[in-house]
Structures are given as structure tokens and as C-alpha cells.
Amino acid sequence: MPEDYSGQDLRGRDFSGQDLIGANLSGANLTGANLRGANLWGADLRGADLHSADLTRANLARANLSRANLSGADLTGALLARANLARANLSGADLTGALLARANLARADLSGANLWHANLSGADLGGANLYRANLSGADLWGANLYRANLSGADLFNANLTGADLFKANLWHANLTRADFTNANLTNAFRRPGISRADMEGVEGLDTVTGLVD
User: Fold this and answer.
1) Secondary structure letter of residue 43 according to DSSP
2) How many C-beta atoms surround the C-beta of residue 8 within 10 A?
3) For 102, how many CA atoms within 13 A lie in the half-sphere containing its CB?
């Protein structure tokens, strides 16, 4: 049977490398906990407090982290494919090289998060707050960024091929060498249209939807 730690005070606990597949950690206080390399595949972490927790290289694939607090957490190299992070707080979190393919990040707070070279292909980032996030070299192929706030974000060399950025806010974002091939930029920047001059240095302009001349 999976472990049941729901609602428990687990602050600073050492779970490094442990097998917690399918564990119930919903509502648990894991502030500053060591979960480095832990296997949390399919675990229930709804509403859990993981502020400043160490989740380096942890396996959180298909885990439910909706409304969890992961602010300031270290998720370097973590596996979060198909995880549910809807409305989660990831502000200031380190997600360097993390795998977030097809993850649900709808309305999540990723402000100031480090997503350098993270894999977000096919992820749902609808309405997410990515203000001043580092997405340099990130893979956002086919991602849903509808109404996402990317103002001040660093998208240097990011792959946004086929991404949907309808009504996304890209104000003051760094788009240098980003690839927007077949992306939808209709009504982005919170204004009627983006001119090609706004997209200087960006790749794939000939295939972008929503640009004005």
C-alpha cells in the first residue's frame, strides 16, 4: 500500500532516494524537506507546502501537485512529465533541465522561475504567470500559452514551434533567436497586432500566425 502522509508536519524530513510511488502527501508540510532523487510517480501532493524543498532529480511524473506551494524549491533535472501543477506556486523555483512535457501548468505562478533548457513540449501553460522567468533554451514545442504572462521573460534560443500564444503578454520579453515557426501570436502583447519589426532576430516569421506587416 502507498504511504499516507496526508496533512502531516514533515518539515525538513529526509526522504532522499525513497520509493514514494503513489504516496498520499496532500496538504502535508514539506517545507525544506529533502526529496532529492525520490520516486514520487503518481503521488498526491495537492495543496502540499514544498517551499524551499530539495526535489533535485526527483521523479514526479503524473503526480498531482495542483495548488501546491513549490516557491523557491529546487527541481533541477526533475521528471514532471504529465504532472498536474495547475495553480501551483513555482515562483523563484529552479527547474533547470526539468522534464515537464505535457504537464498541466494552467494558471501556475512561475514568476522569476529558472526554466533554463527545461522541456515543456506540449505543456498547458494557459493563463500561467511567467513574469521575468528564465526560459532560455527551453523547449516549448506545441505548448499552450494562451493568455500567459511572459512579460520580461528570457526566451533566448527557446523553441516555440507550433506554440499557441494567443493573447499572451510578451512585453519586454527577450525573443532573440527564439523559434516561432508555425506559432500563433494573434493579439499577443495585449494589443491588436505584432509587427515584424517587433520580432527582429526571431526565427520562423514566415510561418507565424497573427503578425502584421
Assistant:
1) -
2) 14
3) 5
Long-range contacts of 107-115 (CB under 8 A, 24+ apart): 109/71
SS3 readout for 148-178: CECCCCECCCCECCCCECCCCECCCCECCCC
Query: pTM score, two decimals?
Result: 0.93
Neighbouring C-alpha atoms within 13 Å toward the C-beta of 110: 35
pLDDT score, position 209? 80
Cβ contact 180:159 at 8 Å: no
Any bridge partners for residue 59, and if so which?
39, 79
Measured distance CA(165)–CA(134) in Å, rounded = 17
pLDDT digits (tens, 9 = 90+) for 105-146: 999 999 999 999 999 999 999 999 999 999 999 999 999 999
Q: How far is it, in rounded angstroms, from Cα 43 to Cα 46?
A: 9
In angstroms, the CA 109 to CA 93 distance is 10
The residue to which cell 499552450 is assigned? 144
Whether the Cβ atoms of residue 196 and residue 180 lie closer than 8 Å to each other:
no
What's the residue count for the chain? Answer: 213
pLDDT digits (tens, 9 = 90+) for 162-196: 999 999 999 989 999 999 999 999 988 755 556 55
